[in-house]
Structures are given as structure tokens and as C-alpha cells.
Design goal:
Shape: globular
Number of strands: 8
Structural class: mainly alpha
Distance between the termini: 54 Å
Radius of gyration: 30 Å
Amino acid sequence: MKIGSVAEVVQSLQRARAEAREAGRPLARALFFIGAGCSRSAGVPLAAEIARDLVCRLATAYNLPCSDDSADAAFTALRDANHFAGVPTAPDIDWYGVYDAVFQDHYKTPDHARNVFKRAISSARGQINWAHLCLGELVSQGYCSTIVTTNFDLLVLEGMAAAGVIPVVSDGLESLGRIDGDPDYPQLIQLNGSIHTYRLRNKPEEIEAVARDEVASACIRDLVRSTGTIIFIGYAGREKAIMSLLKKALTEFSEKEVYWCSYDGNPDRIGDGAREIMVGNPNARILLKQDADRFFFELCRDIGVGSPRFVRDPLGSIADQAVRVVKPTGQGTAKDIRTEIERLGQLLGSARESAEREKNAHQIDSLLAVAREQRLKGQDKAALETLRPILESADPVPAALADAAVSAFRIAESKSSPDDIAESVRLSLLAAQKADINTPQWAIAQSRLGDALLLAAAGHDNMTLLERSLDAYEKSLSAITKENDPDVWAEIKNNIGVIHWHMFELKTDKAFVDNALQAFDEAQSVRTRRDQPIQWGATQTSKATALFCLGEDLGDVEILTTAAEWLKEALEELTKDRLPHEWSVCTHNLASIYATIGEINNDIESLNTALDLYNVLLPEEDPVYPTNSLGLLKNRADVLASLGEITENLGLIDEAVSSYDSYLTKVRDLGMDLFEKRAEVARELALSVREKIASKE
């Protein structure tokens, strides 16, 4: 399975909406399939948490003695009383198995189930989270036509209503017949019912019935057939029957764009059902470590939606609803109703006028709000221009630092022009000099500034930018620790390692490599191979490449051999199937190490290994950076020339010259003068070697 990104989801939804508009349809043919993970941040407990609560209640109800008040102790007491005999307990209690058994053997009636879930959902105290507000906004702006949920809560419906959307609702199997496979109006399918449904489908046998239901099967098939993009978020795929329906439909329509967002960092730990519906589909991707709120925040930002209007412009949202209220004509009661409606309009008008006056009275706050909204829509250059008067003023502007740093990072990340990147970094540095220090906001801003500076330094051999980036990262670590934010801390440590590695390339001081390796090791204390194999592999690649640079500089074959072993380990995780670009880069680096070993030792075996690896890469086009194939041509030509010289094989030298010619043609087309001169020198050297060998014959 290939590893995907939020950026790919963004592009898929953008294409879907553009196609819908070209066809004159109001909604993109995109479907979100969500599970309990989407509701967790709103306070709605997951199945395992519900199971823990229920075993405590059962132990109390059955008057069973417990060693303490924990769920584990309650489960042990219940098991000793011959309950849950079939639930695995090694190495840990299977709380999902407990969940199933609770409803199978104890809370068996529809009333029981409904009361349990009302109690669980009420524990959220009526809260709604960012994910559901964004989901409603995406529907309202035409990026999605159908949402399928296995949850019993009403958060999807509330999110859509907050965005002004009242969808067609299927509340359980009984109402699936009203769902349109190719809709022109938003649809919400609560596949297992909701807290208002008489019969919730939460028992295994009840969920199994879904797979046998002809209406459900036809509904899922029609939806999949008519949908181009399907996004799973917050869903573990634990219900075999539902996954069976999806597998059947996605096997029939096998090239749909499918994105499975996993909370886990290890792709090998996704469920069997998810794996089955994705394997064999060339357009399926898994996204790792995806928290629902963060996923929708990034999705809405990058797609240009920004924050939900319910948050961004609450008065405008209410006003849109208010204008829909009809004013009755006539006297008496009709006049009283009309007066109340007109009073609502006056109140809203006064509120909006007051908000506008407040906005004008606090110009800096107003500019910050505008810039933040621009940034949330992905308009980073515009956001920096909005912030410019504040950033260039003499007054301290701590609130502007985070927004400026994030925008600068995203401008650098988007491969904007060097001038745009330089200006964005300059403005961010101005803000950084004035900001309050040692606050969480300041620390995050410093880490984003470090990101922007590191990206700005890439490919420019700029020690000053690298030093400034390192300084920003080290400042951020005053508030971002391994304990309070391990993932961000590990990312910063990884980037510090990259900085020291690049510093070594500019100033060949071994201390830089030592610092890099230490930072990479610290990053891997969080990015473990077991829990985050993809991130571990990326750090392992950087770690090996830094060591490669040292070994190449010293001409130390032992160091180079260690670097090669580290890259081989990385390639076990960064496979071609999962991450073709990362696999290509890692394999290219491994080939270069063997080529270097061969050059140092005149070792034919190492040179042949390098050539074999280059030949594996040669037909491949790097999906992220197609120009990487240029470096491959040059490196392969160098290896052919070396092998030809050592073995006195004119055919290999002729092949090397041909490869140099292909390389030179491409770099001349691109106007890469420096690379052209280097290749010409290498080509002439290969020809002179050929002439010497030929003269011996």
C-alpha cells in the first residue's frame, strides 16, 4: 500500500468539485466515511472506553468484590464469576471483545443499548469538535455529496446544520431506500442508526445482518459506483460485515481514489478489512498519524476553505438563517410575529455594526484576524502582506510571530521563488526579534521559523541561514519537550540533525556529523521502528546519508559500509510500493555509497553492485522530482567509466560516453552550466582512458 498525504486528498477533492461544476452538478462525487475517532475530541468515548465503564457498572450491579475501582479489577471480578470467558486477556485485555460481549450477554435489549449510548454521548455535554464543523463546511461548499458514519451520535448532522446544510438522512437500515447513489443533494447515512433509532446496530450479529441486507448492499454499491473519491477518517474498520460490503463494491469498482486515514503511525497495524479494500487498487493511499481535528484543519486550509464560517463569521451565519424567516402579512398575531422577526434583524444589524466599529478601533487585532483567515485558506503570501505593517513597526508584536513564521514556512515549502522565500524569512525574523519568549506560542513559532529557514537554505550552500535555523530550533526546545509534545520534539531533533549534516557539507568538521548523528538518534527514540516505521525510515535515511558524507570525505570504507547497512534497513520500511519517491532517493544514495567504495578500493564487486542499483532506478521516474533522473545518468556514467578503466573494457567506456551525452543534452536544455562543465570534463576523461586502452591492442 502506498503512503499518501493530505495534499493528495486536497487535489482529489479539487478535481472532483471541478468535474461536478463542468457537468453542472452542485456537489462533488466524493464520500467521507467516518467512525468513532472523529467524535473523540468532542468527548464521545470510544468502544473500548465504553466497555471499561460498563464492566465497572456491571461489577457494582452484581455486587462483585473488586481489589480497587479500576476497570481491570472489575473485569477480573466478572471473569472470576464466569463472565467474559471467551474474551482474550493476553497480553492485555481485549476491550473491544469485552464491548461485544457486554451487549451480547448483559445489555441485550434495544432499550438497554439506547440507554448506554445516550449516557455515553451525554458525557460529551453537547460539545461539537473542529472535525465535524469542517466536514459540514466542505459539504456546504460542494466538496462532498455523501457522509457515511457508523457513529450513534449526531455530530455530523450538527456540523452540517452549523454550515447551513440540512441533508437527506438515513437513520439506520430501515431508511436506506431514500439514499441516492448519484445525489444532487447532500446525504447523511447513519449506517448503524443513531441514538434516536429504535434498534441500534451494535451487536456483532446485528452488524452482520447489514452485510446480508439487499438494500444496504445495493446502497453501498451504488454509492461506490458513482463516487470518485472515498475518504475514511476516524474509522478502524472493525465491523467485518460493513467492511465486507465495502470490499465487494470496491473490488467491482477497483480503481476508485481511496484514502484511509489511520491514527496509528505504523501501516502494518491497520485492520485486515482496511488492507483488503486497498490492496490491488493503484489509487489507494494510507495516511498515517491522522488525528481527525488536525486532518480537517489541514484539509480545509490547503483546499482554500479556511475555518468554518460558523467560527469565522458567526453573525453572518445567523443572518443568513434569519433572512429565510418569512414575515407574515396582516394584523393581529401576524403583526406580532412580524415585529419579532424585524427585531431580530435589528439586533443582528446592531451586532454587526458594533463588531465593525470594534474591528476598526483595534487595527492590529483586525489585521491579525484577516491574516489568520488568509493563512487558514492557504493564502500565505497575502497573509504576510497583511502582516507587513505590524512586522515592520517598532512596537513589539508577539501575536504576529506565529502567523508570520507559519506563512514563511509554507511559502518555502511550496517552492516559491527565491525572492518570495527570502522576503518571507526576513519578515519572520523581524517578528522573532520582538516577540515574547518562552511561551508555547513562541516555541511553536520558533520551530516553524526553523522550518522556513532550513527550506530556504536548501540547495543554496548558505551557512548563515543554516545557523539561524539551528538557533530557532534550539530556542523552540525551551518549551517543546519530549514529554509534552513528543512528535513535534522528534521532528525538531530530526531537522537539527539535517542542519548539522548540511553544515558538514560546507565545513568538513567531523563534529558536525557527530552532532547530526546524536540528534537523529534522539529523534528515533520517539520515531521508533515499531510504532512509526515510516518516520523512523526517513530519519534513518538522513542518518545514513550524513555518515556517507563523512566516509566519503575521509575515504573510510568501514564508515561507508556502516552507512550502506543503515540505508538497507531504511529500505525495509521505505519500500517502492509504499513510498516510491523515498525509495528512489534511498536506493540512489545506497548505489552512490557502493560506487564510492568501488572508487576507493578499485573494487569491481562494489562498482557492479552500484551499477545494478542504478539500472534498477534508470527506468523509474521520480514521482516528486523528475529531474533526479539527471543525477542518476551522471552517476551511472561515472561507474561505467570506472569499471571500463579497471577491466579495460571498451564497451563499458563507450556506454559511459553515451550516458554522458544523454546527460549533457538534458542539462543543456535546462541551462545548467555548472553541471554541463563537470560532465564534459568526465566525458573527456573517459575518452582519454578509452584511447589508452585501445592503444594497447
